[in-house]
Write a structure and sequence with these properties.
By secondary structure, the protein is an alpha/beta fold. Helices cover 36% and strands 18% of the residues. Bound molecules: S-adenosyl-L-homocysteine. The site of S-adenosyl-L-homocysteine (SAH) has 16 residues, from strand 10 and strand 12.
Length: 358
């Protein structure tokens, strides 16, 4: 069987090399070639012994998911649709800004959480992505965009905010995180890598112990009654437990605040009264808020809150000394914005078949 070496973090690669009778520094060399140089061909790994190159060529490969389509937004946002096999596709989104380049990465094909306002949830859960499929998004995007004038990869920040729930694909997500942080791979600081979760409490505790990085929590409601409706996961991990888990996470987090994401749904969760309730909910958690304009998709009855409602909501939080930003929607014209990622391959295939028939 050919082993895809993108599936291994440094420890796992070292173990695999040891199994081949090879020294740890060989694993380190290959890690650097793959991730620092973006190299996929063993023949090009010039400081490896010819015999080792030959062996690797027979037994291993470096394979990221296949890109099925690339789309470029008017604002420079890029979206790649990646083949996850068996009719599944996932998406990765690159968001260029003046001082940084952020890649939004998917961790599952589909999603089991079924949040009422999210299009990924509508397709149900298909499967967990492998480490190669998660880190492969970063590997591919960097290579595609090319190194900048200083010889650095253009992606300075990674957010695990694409399709799926990273903490429900825990082991693969953590191996991918190790690679993002590893100086022999991408060398990103823990503060520049953000895991976004709907609030899987026990997994938040594990992440704090095993690989603490910046944490964003999708909140979206100020009380359990409404959050139960919007996010079914709340019935399992209600707000009191979630707030306690956030406080515990901060004991080891690389940043001294949690980012709460809050999607603004007109007439549902955007009143001044609800903003006040939110302030008292998070009183004991050092946090920042990120208000996300709702991004519509077909088959939704929710609407985006008006600018006035967002401003009033934001004012209440700011008056309570909570730093609050409103997320600028990027890539909306190519359905690359939050909650719009759906990997619409299956639909498209159906349409093509119909076109062929008529
Ligand atoms: N499962 C993780 C990762 C998904 S991140 C999580 O729940 O955090 C994607 C972010 O976009 C989440 O905060 C999610 O709640 C939000 N989102 C989902 N659908 C959206 C939509 N239609 N418009 C705006 N934001 C949305």
């Amino acid at each position: 069987m050919t082993e895809n070496l993108l599936n291994f973090d440094a420890d796992q690669l070292t173990a695999w090399f040891a199994g081949q009778g090879e020294k740890p520094f060989r694993a380190r060399q290959v890690l650097r070639w793959m991730h620092k140089a973006g190299e996929a061909e063993f023949d090009a790994m010039s400081d490896l012994a010819a015999s080792l190159r030959g062996k690797l060529k027979q037994q291993a490969c470096v394979r990221a998911p296949k890109v099925m389509r690339e789309e470029l937004s008017e604002d420079g946002t890029r979206k790649w649709l990646l083949d996850a096999g068996m009719g599944n596709a996932v998406e990765a989104v690159f968001i260029p800004e003046e001082t940084r380049g952020t890649l939004c990465v998917s961790t599952q094909a589909g999603c089991a959480l079924d949040c009422a306002f999210c299009s990924t949830g509508k397709q149900g859960f298909n499967r967990n992505l492998s480490v190669a499929e998660i880190i492969g998004q970063l590997w591919w995007a960097n290579r595609e965009l090319g190194k900048n004038a200083e010889g650095n990869w253009p992606i300075s920040n990674v957010v695990l905010m694409g399709m799926g729930e990273p903490l429900l694909n825990f082991d693969n997500t953590v191996s991918a995180l190790h690679l993002m942080l590893d100086d022999n791979a991408y060398g990103l600081s823990r503060r520049r890598v953000t895991v976004s979760t709907c609030g899987i409490v026990p997994a938040m505790d594990r992440l704090r112990e095993e690989c603490p990085v910046a944490l964003a929590v999708s909140l979206h409601a100020p009380n359990d009654a409404l959050r139960n409706v919007l996010m079914p996961v709340n019935r399992k991990y209600p707000l009191r437990e979630l707030m306690a888990a956030c406080r515990r996470y901060l004991e080891k987090a690389p940043r001294d605040f949690i980012t709460f994401e809050y999607v603004m749904l007109e007439g549902v969760n955007d009143s001044v009264q609800q903003a006040r309730e939110l302030v008292s909910l998070v009183r004991e958690v050092p946090c920042k808020f990120n208000l996300i304009p709702f991004n519509p998709f077909p088959q939704t009855h929710y609407r985006r809150s008006g600018a006035d409602a967002v401003r009033r909501f934001c004012d209440v939080l700011m008056h309570a000394d909570i730093v609050t930003t409103t997320r600028r929607t990027r890539g909306g014209d190519i359905a690359a914005a939050c909650g719009q990622l759906a990997g619409q391959v299956q639909d498209k295939t159906k349409r093509t078949l119909m076109e062929v028939r008529t």
